[in-house]
Every structure is written in C-alpha cells, then in structure tokens.
Write a structure and sequence with these properties.
Radius of gyration: 37 Å
Helix content: over 70%
Mean pLDDT: 75
Subcellular location: Membrane
CATH architecture of one domain: Up-down Bundle
Low-confidence stretches: 7-12, 14-30, 234-239
Protein name: Cytochrome b561 domain-containing protein
Main location: membrane
Order of helices and strands: HHHHHH
Cofactor: heme b
CATH class of one domain: Mainly Alpha
Number of helices: 6
Keywords: Electron transport, Heme, Iron, Membrane, Metal-binding, Signal, Transmembrane, Transmembrane helix, Transport
Length: 252
C-alpha cells in the first residue's frame, strides 16, 4: 500500500471521527450556553428584585421621615396658638398618630435593610441610618412618658423632646438625600428629578413651619381680612370731660 493510499484511509477515518464527535461538541456547547444564559437570567432577576426592594425601602423611609414626621411637627406647632378646645385636641391627635405611623414605617424600612441588603456600614447612608433608628425609638418612648402640665419635670421633658425631635427630623432629611445617592451608585439610575421634588417639598414644609410665628403675630395685629384698626383722630383722643365741654360749646 502506497503512501497516498495510507493518507487517504487516514483522512477517511479522521472525517468519520469528526462526524461522530461534532454532535457531542455542539450539544456540550449548547449546554454551556444554556447554563450561562440561565445564570444571566438569575442575575437579572436578582438585580430586578434588589432594585424593587431598594425602591420600597426608600418609599417607606420617605413616607416616615419625609412626610409623616413633618406633618406631626407642623400639627403640634399649630397647636401653640390654641388655649383649649376641640381644635387643640384634634391637632394633638394628628401629631401623635403621625409620629406613631412614622415610627412603624421606619421600623419596617429598617427590617428590610437588615434582611435584604449588604449591611457593611461602609457609607454615610448606612451609618446615619443605624443611629437614626435608635433615636426614633428613643423619641417615641420619651413621648409616651410625657409629664402633666405644671409638674416639675415638664420643662425638662419639653426641652429634651424638642431637641431630640429636631435632631431626628434633620437627620431623616439628610439620610433621604444620602439614600438617593446610594441608590444612584448601586443601580446607575438618575436621581435628579427625585432630588428636585424632595427639595421642593422640604422647602415648602420649612416655609410653612417658619410662617407659623408670623401668622400668629399677624392675627394679633388685627390686619387679616382687612380688619386693620383705624387710627384715632384728634376728636377721639380728647378726654371725656373735654369732650363734654366741646359738645356744650358746640350746642351753645
């Protein structure tokens, strides 16, 4: 058998082996591609689930710290001009219910973050958040042990409650901004619109809060609804006796 015949038989055998092996190779490649696509689908599902959980966490904390807590603060601020009556009770109940719902929603958001997120506490949002959760519950407990009006510890309680409430409100607003930034860094999604909307809301609440003192001042001055007091004339500043003398002189 010559060299060419041996080479021909070798080529035939090699072709036959390749024909047999090619389906196995193609099937293994398809399996690898299927496994890779399956992993990609799982990763996409996990990222979508994580993104949804982050959005729900942010909504709960906004509803707690960005809405309900300011509403409670504005309600108790408006009650300062009320002496007693039904309006004072309504404002007090609005304050209490708003703050309790705020604590519950913040607790739900905290549970979500501890269970579903990577709590390495290596950023501002997580570090401020863990301290904020503790202050929220401390403020709630202080609110439940409110002394009666006129008691010795009432002024001390009021000062602590006011200072702690102000700190919680400021930290809550700050943590919402840091949370938006953390959401942007984790998902690469834009946050400019939400930042502008929240800034407008905070500005409106701050303006209304500061306007409360001016509103009471305006009411005391009697300039609302065109009820500005009329300045007395020269005749009105005369003493009663002088008025009588003037009237007798005019009649004579």
């Amino acid at each position: 058998m010559g060299f060419l015949q041996k080479l021909g038989f070798f080529c035939i055998r090699l072709s036959f082996l390749l024909f047999l092996v090619s389906p196995l190779v193609s099937s293994s490649q398809e399996q690898m591609k299927g496994a890779g696509s399956h992993k990609e689908n799982i990763h996409k599902q996990m990222s979508h689930k994580l993104s949804s959980e982050i959005r729900l966490h942010g909504f709960l904390l906004w509803a707690s710290m960005g809405f309900l807590m300011p509403v409670g603060i504005l309600a108790i601020r408006m009650s300062h001009g009320e002496e007693c009556g039904r309006r004072l009770r309504i404002l007090f109940y609005v304050h209490g219910l708003s703050e309790m719902l705020s604590v519950l929603l913040a607790t739900a958001g905290a549970v979500m973050s501890f269970r579903n997120f990577n709590n390495s506490f290596n950023n501002k949002h997580q570090r401020v958040g863990i301290g904020l959760y503790g202050l929220i519950w401390l403020q709630a407990l202080i609110g439940f042990v409110r002394p009666q009006r006129g008691s010795k510890g009432r002024s001390i309680w009021f000062s602590v409650h006011w200072i702690l409430g102000t700190a919680v409100s400021l930290l809550g607003v700050l943590n919402i901004y840091t949370g938006l930034q953390a959401y942007h860094e984790k998902t690469s999604k834009g946050i400019k619109l939400w930042t502008k909307i929240f800034t407008a809301q905070v500005s409106a609440i701050t303006f209304f809060y500061l306007f409360q003192d001016k509103w009471l001042y305006i009411q005391k001055q009697g300039v609302l609804l065109g009820n500005e007091p009329v300045r007395p004339t020269a005749d009105q500043v005369l003493l009663p006796i002088e008025k009588q003398k003037q009237s007798v002189t005019d009649s004579s």
